[in-house]
Amino acid sequence: MKKIRYIITFLLLSNGVFAQLQTYKRGLASFDKGQYDLAIKDLSKVTNIAESEKANLNYKIAEAYRLSNRWVEAIPYYEKAFEAKLMIPEAHFHYAFALKAAGKYEQALKELQQFIDAKSTIKAYNEKAYREVNSLRLIGELKQKQTDITFSNLSAINTAGAEFSPVVLGDELIFTASRKSKTYSNGLPYVGLYKSRFARTMEEMSKPEKFSNAIFDEERNEGTPAFSPDGKTMIYARGNTGKRKDFSPDMDLYISRYVNGTGWTEPSYVSASDSASWDGSPAFSRDGKTIYFASNRPGGFGGIDLYRVNMDASGRFGNPVNMGKEINTAGDEMFPYVSEDGKLYFASDGHPGLGKLDLFVAIRSGGKITVENMGLPYNSNMDDFGLVMRKNGDVFFSSNRAGGKGDDDIYYYEAPKQTELADATPLIPRSTPDSLSKPLEIKTVRYFLAGTIYTKNANNQNVPLDSATVKILATGQDEPLKEIITQKDGKFGPIAVQEDNDYVILGSKKNYLAKREDFSMYGRTIPQSLLTKAITDTTFFTSLNLEEITLDKTFRVENIYYDLDKWDIRPDAALELNKLVQILVDNPTIKIELGSHTDARATEIYNLRLSQRRAESAVNYIVSKGIDRARITAKGYGESELLIRNAKTEDEHQTNRRTEFKIIEIE
Question: What predicted TM-score, i.e. pTM, was given to this entire model?
Fold first, then answer.
């Protein structure tokens, strides 16, 4: 009887483990499809999983929350992933912004600094991290920038779903909301356009209804409309249906015109839109001849940028133009709006702000565009975006700040009745701090780069290296901008560098391995708000550690992974092998052996043959990049030099599966 009970218990436990594994796989599949709610639902049920998968499980849940714009909910799962030894540097980057969304600014700054110190190779993340470090140092000042008005939740319209991107059209407020009966592949309702008529007070606005039957598709996302000054032309964003027949993977811009007696026409595709990119949140200039919109099309500054495009009287569009680095950052710039007095307002998470998306106004002074954060109460530690105004001084915007009805809500400021004049000055320029309305004093920063060349002594301590040659090159250039020989202290610089430029620091000395390191000025620009003098000099410091060339010394090549039982060079492996190519280019006098190692989970002879094929494949790749084959030898070691004997976890097996090179000859 005991034996039967044992067998039954074993079968139940086995079935439970199998069910958990299936739930885990289903959750990962939903995540890969962008179905984040479904992914969270399944992954949160997984409680019995191998230790080696716990980091990935919690990381995927955190990412699902982040990618569905629920940053605060992601925090505990990032923390669990880190506790489980998650080794993905970008996770600290996203975790920092989640902490900022929760108002934990000091902790966010610490995480960002940790990410920067890890020297990520993701340029856009690096730039945004540098910008955000400056932004977090401005939090105290941004909190002091506050107007004396109060915003209220537009409860006559808002629900537990999402209501956002309000726009005024005559005596109606048009807005975007997630109210359709059909749901997208992620399980959330499609968004559409709705309208509500203004009344004597905001609380008495009419019950929302569809904006137009001609512009309402139950199986599409439709939203963020913009209307021409005469109200007869509308441009808005329309997404695909999530079905395979749709060629566009994201949102595109569409145009519709109002015909008296008929209503809005069938929308048509805007030629300035890019079907391979995300295009949305359009806005008209005050004369109706220019369209501003947001897009993640190639060629921008990173993330989503603001663009402008001209439209003639017949509705033909010119070529879109990026609005430049004064407006756009490595983050997202979205939801542009042009006020009656011609000021450009927009939302951004790349400029110094209090939370995720903050509201900003662009000001031109002395031929230079400066972007100003609008401060409290416009901004919070969450998303604040989609600002518009009525001529009478009423202000509307969207936010998912605490205290709302659910998701994104619309907030409003109702101007005093005495300001209801046709030519009334918009509220915002009068109520924002003086710094937004008076001419700005543009301060100048001169940037420099300096550093130290080190090497390791017998005690593995850093010691300055004299007589080393340091070359500063612009990225992609062979001729150095500056060449310096270090003195006994190993120091070089300061060397003048320019904003938003990329550089390479190349250090070399006879009998030492030459080494290069990238240095980017993107994102390092100091905000005007932090400057106290007309001219400020600031120097960035870096260092290079040169290793003495020693025969048979082994160097590990990071992240050279192969698919199971294969030896083809994957794209991620190619990135690492390119670094080895550069080492051989910078050190033309060395010859190396490239060695490949496997784990011990197959037969010894099989692993030996597999490792030899992998080593030869890597050598062939390096030779294809112009390196003389005589300088590099392929060697497969199989499982003969395991770093971890009796490896059990996948991480331990991965440690044993590695690619290394060693110097075997110096010419």
Answer: 0.70
Provide the edge-to-edge strand list for the sheet that holds 172-177. Answer: 163-169, 172-177, 192-197, 209-210
| The 3-state secondary structure of 552-599, one letter per residue | CCEEEECCCCCCCCCCCCCHHHHHHHHHHHHHHHHCCCEEEEEEEECC
Residue 435 reports pLDDT greater than 70? no
pLDDT tens digits, 520-579: 887 788 777 677 788 889 899 999 999 888 888 777 776 676 665 667 776 767 777 888
β-pair type (590-597, 632-638): parallel
Selection from 254, 235, 239, 247 nearest residue 276 by Cα: 247
Residue 186, pLDDT score: 61
Sign (positive or negative) of CA dihedral 103, 106, 111, 117? positive
**Residue 253 CB coordination number (10 Å):** 26
Cis status, amide bond into 225, omega within 30 of 0: no
CA–CA gap between residue 348 and residue 325 (Å, rounded)? 13
Kindly report, residue by residue over 4-53, the tens digit of the pLDDT.
554 444 444 445 667 888 888 898 998 888 888 889 999 999 888 888 88
Burial 214-246 (b: 16+ CB within 10 A, else e): ebeeeebbbbbbbbbeeeebbbbbbbbbbeeee
Exposed, middle or buried, 468 (CB in 10 Å: 0-12/13-18/19+)? buried
pLDDT tens track for 293-303: 999 999 888 78
pLDDT value of residue 240: 67
Two tokens, residue 381: 């530690």
Beta pairing, strands 515-520 & 502-508 = antiparallel
| C-alpha span between 61 and 76 (Å, rounded) | 10
